[in-house]
Amino acid sequence: MQVSIIVGVVAVGGFPVYQRWRTEQAVAVEGDLIGAGPAVNDGKQHGFPMLQVGGTTWVMTPDGVADIFPFFRDSGVRIEWGYKGPLLTTPVRDRNGNLLAEITRNHWRIYPLYCADKNYRKDALEIKDSAGHVVLQVRILPDRIRLQGEWWDTQGNGIRLLSPPNPTPSAGSIVIPLNRQNQHIESLIQPMFEYPSKDHWQEFVH
Question: Burial letters for 150-164: b for 16+ Cβ neighbours within 10 Å, e otherwise?
């Protein structure tokens, strides 16, 4: 009986600690996706990582990103191989050019002044702007990065790259030009996580 009482006290006492830890993780302003770290640079052939949006998959040759993002050649988007899988580097800006977040070889950092919320786990990250719209959605897979997002310049022009409403292997992807006057809110990226993140950390939409 005495042992049972002690175990019960430890279990009850540990629950607030776990909840506090979850809250701390949910509000973190930076973290690492799988494989965060340096790119492979050993002079050997490792093939090329892939980028997937909807039913479209691109092989990321050295000029691959420039081919996909010709709209903003200085967009900062980069896909490369890391020692544990593909790596993503990209800035995330809102329609006014404010920096919401930065991802550098799978290490992410958000700036709460312009970021309404975000949710994440080791293989996925999603970021919302101050209007509550999803502006970046990333999944890290062993051989590819699954990506949707918005990329804006500092002049108020942007693009939204997203999957069709019911993506299939042949559905392709959608590219929508954006500007401050027309942000096409009828075609927003749908959240993959539940919100608010402080109550639903790591929980995918069912």
Answer: bbbeeeebbbbbbbe
* Within a domain: 135: yes
Task: Answer yes or no: is 12 within a domain.
Answer: no
pTM of the predicted structure, to 2 decimals: 0.86
- 37 domain residue, yes or no: yes
Instruction: Give me 75's structure tokens.
Output: 């967009």
Report the domain count for the chain.
Answer: 1
* C-alpha–C-alpha distance, residues 119 and 33, integer Å: 12
In a domain, 131, yes or no: yes
* Structural domain that includes position 51: 30-200
Show pLDDT as tens, one digit a residue, over the chain (206 residues).
455 554 444 445 567 898 889 889 999 999 999 999 998 877 666 677 888 988 788 887 766 666 666 665 667 888 889 989 999 999 999 988 899 999 999 999 999 999 999 999 999 999 999 999 999 999 999 999 999 999 988 788 899 999 888 766 667 888 899 998 999 999 999 999 999 999 999 999 98
What radius of gyration do the chain's Cα atoms show? 19
